[in-house]
Amino acid sequence: MWLLVERWREVYSPSALGDRAGYLGTEKREKSIFLKIEACEMVQILISSPEEGNPGEWMLIELQGEIESRQNTGLAGSLMGDLHYTKEGVPVLIVGHHILYGKVVKLEKPFAVLVKRSGHQEVDDNAMETGEAKPSTNYQVTALIKKKMIFKTRPKPIITNVPKKV
Amino acid sequence: MRTLDEVHATLQIAKLNVDDLKPVIHCLSFGENVSSGDYCLMELDETLCKHIEAGKSLVIRGDKDEHAVLCSEDKTYDLKIADTSNLLLFIPDCKTPDHFPEDLPCQNLILSQISGFSSCYWELRRCRPKVKKLKKLLMDNTYEGPDSENERNSTEQMYSTDDLLERIQASKQELLNQLQVIHACKIEGYWRILEFDYEMKIMGHITQLVDSESWSFSKVPLSVCLEELGPLEPKEMIEHCLNCYGKRYTEEAGDIYFALNEDKVCRATAQMLLQNAVKFNLSEFQEVWQQSVPEGMTTRLDQLKGLALVDRSSRPETIFLLKVEDLPEDTQERFNCLFGMREKWTEEAVAPYIRDLCGEKQTIGALLTKYARTSMQNGVKVYNSRRPVAT
């Protein structure tokens, strides 16, 4: 089975108002690459809904760029930052020594968060094999995401050392 | 674990005033398993979202050489990965301002964990089910009657509904619809297509019976058919043909009748005639055709849309078999094929051969605008290929 991958990148161009107002991003769809997801005979990969009740609702935070851990120790378990809201409801994120201002947006197309599960699938009688279990992949819907917080403006650096006037 | 004091210290350095902020603060940290990559995001439309909320599942289907598709119980979607330059973090416990009450007496610190992150997500786009393969699979072993030699000696693979779902990139409902369109029937749990001549033989019995009993075509009684024709052919086959070529209804007394569909019967008769030669003289064909259909039925050329093509430019005018289901499934390939056969097409002539290519809200006109170029010929608008095609 093949999955088509389309890559798109935000292209930055300085805004007419100058740096202070933040960069304007423009989307550009670039060429596509084929990516194989399962290299085997015809498969049916199941995506199941959660066993008990409705899937929960999670939040999505969208950031431009990448996050790196300062000491190169990897991200797992480490602090990322503080999320505040102004009295007007504008989300403010403090990450390392940057402040980012964002907004809460309702997603036109909600997301499902899928978690991959490896299970064993019984080969059925039609396939003339004797009850062997075949390792298979399936996914389960863990949560739905209906809104996101997007931080599109250029991060403002926090200056910690202000040189004293001499 | 981060404390309120530490948060305030950061706010001070950042020169943000606590009074300008709401008293709920989330401290975000990465979960322990955040990099293990077992999470992925899938974009949904409204229908799919409701589908998942109702607890229903989805299936990804595809052979090793096919593009993956996603199927719900009645729709099929092309599956693509959109890779962006943005980072998407997903957080289970994160509230937006509308979730907390207006006036909170003191500051609240919520420790939220980021379960995972991704820069790509699965994108779904509704598409036509890829059902062309279905007829091909079933044609490998057509049913010619219980006594035929093929049936007795056959070692060919046969397919149940589940077998078909493993091989065809379509949702279950779309698969069942297509099985009905191609007149497939279930024999002993397996889907079979009747060999065309066998199907015509049974129809011949039925129409002869209608004639000899002087029934109206719109009131063919099931019970009498089964009784009279049962000795000749299996009863299930008789009933199957009545279902394919007629509409079933029940009278007040509980008797089942069929209203035979004139268009379907005439069309099948035409196919029977046309498959015997490459081309026919149009007027001769029309005469033989009318004589071959049951008495009382009227033939019309428009009954043959998507089955046969009339060539009005040849002298004499001719007609030949061209079945839309024998043409390529991919849109560009289909157009290349059609323009390879004939350089210029009127909309009326080409429409039956491209109608099945139309997307959910696409019209034939839109399809032609995209894949063809127009010109005028003898005062009539015609379409030809956008690119050079070998004729």
Describe this structure in a few short sentences.
Chain A has strands at residues 2-13, 24-36, 43-48, 56-64, 79-85, 91-95, 98-101, 103-122, 133-151, 156-157. With 166 residues, chain A is mostly beta strands.
Structural write-up:
The complex is a heterodimer of chains A (166) and B (391). In chain A, strands 3, 4, 8 and 9 form a four-stranded mixed sheet that branches. A four-stranded antiparallel sheet of chain A has the order 5-6-7-10, with no helix packed on it. Chain A has strands at 2-13, 24-36, 43-48, 56-64, 79-85, 91-95, 98-101, 103-122, 133-151, 156-157. Chain A is extended. Chain A is mainly beta and 166 residues long. Chain A has no helices and ten strands. In chain B, the strands form six sheets. In chain B, strands 2-7-5-4-3 form a five-stranded mixed sheet, with helices on one face. Chain B has 14 helices and 18 strands. Chain B has 391 residues and is an alpha+beta fold. Chain B is 35% helix and 25% strand. Chains A and B meet through strand 1, strand 3, strand 4, strand 5 and strand 8 of A and helix 1, strand 1, strand 2, helix 2 and strand 3 of B. Strand 3 (43-48) of chain A pairs antiparallel with strand 3 (58-62) of chain B.
Spell out the helices and strands of chain A N to C: EEEEEEEEEE
Shape of chain A: extended
Number of strand elements of chain A: 10
**Helix coverage percent of chain B:** 25-40%
The share of residues in extended strands of chain A comes to: over 45%
List keywords for this structure.
A: 166 residues; mainly beta; extended; B: 391 residues; alpha+beta; five-stranded mixed β-sheet; three-stranded antiparallel β-sheet; 25% strand; elongated
